[in-house]
Specification:
alpha+beta; Enolase-like, domain 1; 3 domains; five-stranded antiparallel beta sheet; four-stranded antiparallel beta sheet; 14 strands; about 25% strand; globular
């Protein structure tokens, strides 16, 4: 199927792009890598009057450090995350998750920020960013605002971005203590969307877990932050009982449905198993980082 007719703009500066959105944002779609938007256009699930291609915008294709955060620009591709050594050292969970995304063709073209803004409940990056307590930086002609990822996802394929805004970067806090993460994904075949996926990040405070982050994919209308499970881990010394309790609470937070990939009960059980597995792995990696 071919897309419906649309206007196409490829601005050379962010100011130009924001000016266009200020005028035509209500009937426009922003495109970075196009790996999410183009299939929607071809299927006519999306029929914008204007496609705004930001692929030429300068200074948005880098991974940098600033003020205790790793900054991922809007044009940084999945493969860039896999290859960035500084990012891998600072937040290894990102590189691990990037390896699970689709296939090499998609990873070489698709962008991290674009994927997050697509807000597919079965997408990989949403749960990872929730586990890492990331925030999206949105720019418009009237200014800039920071949106915690926990508040960013509003529903399936729906975010807190306004029609006149562009997500220019994602900011991820760099752990200050010994930390570790893990990403576990169940898929029917390599490169498929997740049946269930779980991202886990822990940061230690001495012998206790100072902070824990748990994000769930494909078990609800949006990616889910397992807040009660995170609270159950905070300021606790790791033990099998503590981990089992957190895994149970995370499974309780999941809201899956029966479909061709599995029953809701099965998916909840996978969440429980993946949280347990992820916590054991993350804690082991945090211990290695400390030694």
């Amino acid at each position: 199927m071919f897309p419906a007719a649309f206007d196409y703009r490829s601005p050379a500066s962010l100011d130009e792009a924001l000016a266009v959105l200020a005028e035509r944002g209500d009937d426009a779609k922003v495109m970075a890598g196009g790996q999410s938007l183009i299939p929607l256009l071809k299927l006519r699930f999306a029929q914008p009057a204007l496609v705004l291609d930001i692929g030429r915008l300068p200074n948005l294709n880098a991974v940098t450090r600033h003020d205790g955060n790793m900054i991922i620009g809007a044009l940084v591709r999945h493969v860039d995350i896999e290859r960035d050594r500084d990012l891998t050292r600072a937040v290894p969970l990102l590189a691990e998750a990037a390896h699970w995304i689709a296939d090499p063709l998609v990873r070489n073209r698709g962008t991290v920020v674009g994927s997050v803004c697509h807000a597919d409940p079965s997408g990989d990056w949403g749960s990872v960013m929730l586990a890492l307590n990331a925030e999206v930086v949105a720019r418009s002609k009237s200014g800039e605002r920071k949106i915690p990822v926990a508040e960013f996802f509003q529903g399936p394929f729906t975010t807190a971005l306004r029609s006149d805004e562009i997500a220019t970067e994602i900011r991820i806090p760099i752990p200050t203590g010994a930390a570790g993460g893990a990403y576990n994904k169940l898929e029917r075949k390599v490169g498929d969307f997740a049946t269930v996926a779980v991202a886990v990040q822990v940061e230690m405070n001495g012998k206790k877990i100072g902070r824990a982050g748990i994000g769930l994919t494909s078990v609800g209308a949006t990616n889910i932050k397992a807040i009660e499970a995170e609270k159950a881990l905070a300021e606790r010394e790791p033990s099998d009982e503590v981990i089992r309790d957190a895994a149970r609470l995370a499974a309780d937070a999941a809201e899956p449905k029966d479909d061709i990939r599995g029953s809701a009960a099965y998916k909840k059980d996978v969440v429980r198993v993946f949280v347990q597995r992820g916590l054991h792995t993350a804690l082991s990696r945090a211990q290695e980082a400390r030694s």
